[in-house]
Structures are given as C-alpha cells and as structure tokens.
TrEMBL record:
Domain (DUF4062): residue spans on this chain: 5-84
Protein name, UniProt field: DUF4062 domain-containing protein
Length: 97
C-alpha cells in the first residue's frame, strides 16, 4: 500500500479536537500526518523546517475556523502555510459554515 505524507495546518487551541480527528483518520488509513505538533512556529529557521515538510507532503489539509492563530508580521502562520503550499486545492465545508 502506498503511504502518503499529509500536512495538517490549522490554528491549534480552538481546533485541537478537529486536528486530533484528522490525524487519527490519517493514521487509520495508514498514512503519515505532519503538523505543528512536530515543530513550533517561531522564527525563520523554524519556517524553513515547516516549508520543507510542506514540500515533502503529498497532501495539504487546512482547517479554518474563527481564530487567526500565531502571527508572523501581518499574517498568521496558518495563512503563511496556506499561501506557501502549491498542491491542488479541494474545498470541503463541514458543520454550519
């Protein structure tokens, strides 16, 4: 079976249960989840690590809700990750959004 690396991006505190569900589903399907649990957003060196993980991922999942998250200048790290990734985009809406 082919294993895919899946980068999971979101704000953390408000979406922890949803992140946990996505990560659990990725693991149950036999794939490899990657996300902020493995590194922290903080400085340019950490941003290089994040970009490398996004580049090495086969899929990019972003969870969006009502918080902005940790800021890097005028944008959040979640937005910065989203702006950086170059994989094809498929939108799915869950809940009352």
């Amino acid at each position: 079976m082919l294993k895919y690396q899946i980068f999971v991006s979101s704000t953390y505190e408000d979406l922890k249960p949803e992140r946990d569900q996505v990560i659990k589903a990725v693991l149950e399907m036999g794939h490899i989840p990657v996300g902020m649990e493995m590194f922290s957003a903080g400085d340019e060196q950490q941003w290089d690590v994040i970009k490398k993980q996004i580049d090495q991922s086969d899929y990019y999942v972003v969870l969006i809700a009502h918080r902005c998250g940790s800021m890097d200048g005028s944008i959040s790290y979640t937005e910065k990750e989203y702006d950086y990734e170059s994989l094809p985009i498929r939108n799915d809406t869950v809940g009352g959004v």
